[in-house]
Design goal:
mainly alpha; 13 helices
Length: 308
């Protein structure tokens, strides 16, 4: 908690409140718009940071429960708080949607150990549908869910139908309320977009992302070289995390106005690979140097976040 507060201190000096933009669906704009009316910027900032901290804790718990490393550690949660501090993400639809995606991963990874998983398979679809209604580009992860179901469960058409029903259910209620309230525009939003993303980043943000990318590549190499030491379940989890990262890279292409905080989807799998970089090397000078360079860059990015 203290580590996360130390890295995300700029959020409490320049509170943006509840951030709503043209990418957000009606569900986020409506419900969280009401939330914004009854709170102030300080509360919203605190809730946003608390959600970010819980995400770090849950991601670390997922990695620990699935034994993705040879021994338990807190490097994944630490890495998530570290690399998310590059952009100091506030309370956005992306933050909420990422929370649903992490919840989905937790359920997906535990399907193997369940005797009657149909309820959880339906919940997988339900959470996926809600995530899409909050932040539409997450429809890309539907393919990831089906791939995960194929990896963690024997192919059973009935379970696939249950998953599809779960995804459709939130949209059914949207259609029903839109019809009853005579608001057909609810059914037309969000629109589908595909365009080349354009970002405006400072040299320090580019440096931070470059170091993070290097750590992810090194972590991927270490994970692959140590894969034989892990259980089959753990290897499957690494496979899903790798595919997750690939899908997350395409999120900005399906957004109307790409924003820097869309990288939060990439930071979930990136934090696990970064933890791999911090975990495996016997000589620690490189990872210590990388860590403190990222911390310094985070402080510099925080300065620009507040004053620019």
């Amino acid at each position: 908690m203290l580590y996360g507060l130390a890295l995300n201190w700029p959020l409490f000096f320049k509170s943006a409140g509840l951030t709503i933009n043209s990418n957000d669906t009606f569900l986020f704009q409506y419900f969280f718009g009401i939330f914004n009316k009854f709170t102030n910027d300080a509360i919203i900032t605190g809730v946003g940071f608390f959600i970010l901290f819980l995400q770090a804790v849950i991601i670390n718990k997922i990695v620990t429960d699935q034994k993705m490393f040879q021994r338990n550690n807190y490097l994944t949660g630490m890495s998530y708080l570290l690399i998310t501090s590059i952009f100091h993400v506030g309370f956005t639809s992306t933050l909420i949607s990422v929370s649903f995606i992490i919840w989905i991963l937790s359920i997906l990874f535990n399907l193997t150990t369940q005797q009657n998983p149909r309820k959880n398979i339906f919940n997988l679809g339900l959470l996926t549908g809600v995530s899409i209604l909050i932040f539409f580009p997450t429809f890309l992860f539907v393919l990831l869910i089906f791939l995960g179901l194929l990896i963690f469960r024997p192919f059973r058409p009935r379970e696939w139908v249950i998953l599809i029903l779960g995804i459709i259910t939130p949209f059914y209620f949207v259609f029903a309320f839109g019809y009853l309230l005579d608001k057909p525009e609810w059914l037309l939003s969000p629109l589908f977009y595909f365009r080349m993303p354009k970002f405006s980043l400072t040299v320090f943000e580019i440096s931070s992302l470059s170091i993070t990318l290097l750590l992810v590549i090194i972590g991927f190499s270490y994970a692959q070289s140590n894969m034989r030491k892990l259980l089959v379940q753990s290897r499957n989890c690494w496979t899903i995390i790798t595919v997750f990262l690939i899908f997350a890279l395409f999120i900005p292409f399906f957004s109307k106005t790409p924003q820097y905080y869309f990288t939060l989807f990439c930071f979930v799998p990136a934090s696990i690979f970064t933890a791999s970089t911090f975990f495996y090397p016997e000589k620690k000078w490189f990872i210590n140097l990388s860590h403190w360079v990222l911390v310094v860059l985070s402080v510099i990015n925080g300065y620009f976040f507040i004053f620019h």
